[in-house]
Amino acid sequence: MKRLSVSLGIGVIVAVLLPIALLLFGVLTLVWTLSGILLLNGLWLFMFGAALGPKESRLYNAAWGAVIALLSTFAFLPLRYMAGLVVLAVIGATVATVVVRSRSKTA
To answer: What is the domain extent for residue 69?
Structure first.
């Protein structure tokens, strides 16, 4: 039985092309297209990191996927709030990575 192999690249390609197609059909504006690209790429990286990626980089991929997804909020949140959320997510990703690394070294 063959195992289905999903790469990070195919998801990124779909996450970029889908909002661009919606822009070309007139469904999205340029700002919402950029926001959609960031959101879909962030969600894909989060999902890939949480479930599909290599075990040793799952936390790293999932945490940075959340950061990239939060960048997409520039379209509907004031920039100060968006920047604050991104800074908090970066801090959380850094702390989580340090905690997991320190636990794996002691175990």
So the answer is: 8-106
Q: What is the DSSP letter of 26?
A: T
Contact 70, 86 (CB under 8 A): yes
Structure tokens at 59: 């936390």
Enter the DSSP assignment of 50.
I
Q: Is the pTM of this model over 0.85?
A: yes
What distance lies between CA 17 and its chain's CA centroid?
16
pLDDT tens for 36-69 read 999 999 999 999 988 888 888 888 899 999 999 9
Sequence-ordered list of residues with C-beta below 8 angstroms from that of 68, at least 6 positions apart, any chain: 38, 41, 42, 45
Answer whether 39's CB lies under 8 Å from 66's CB. no
Domain count, the chain: 1
Average pLDDT over residues 84-107: 88
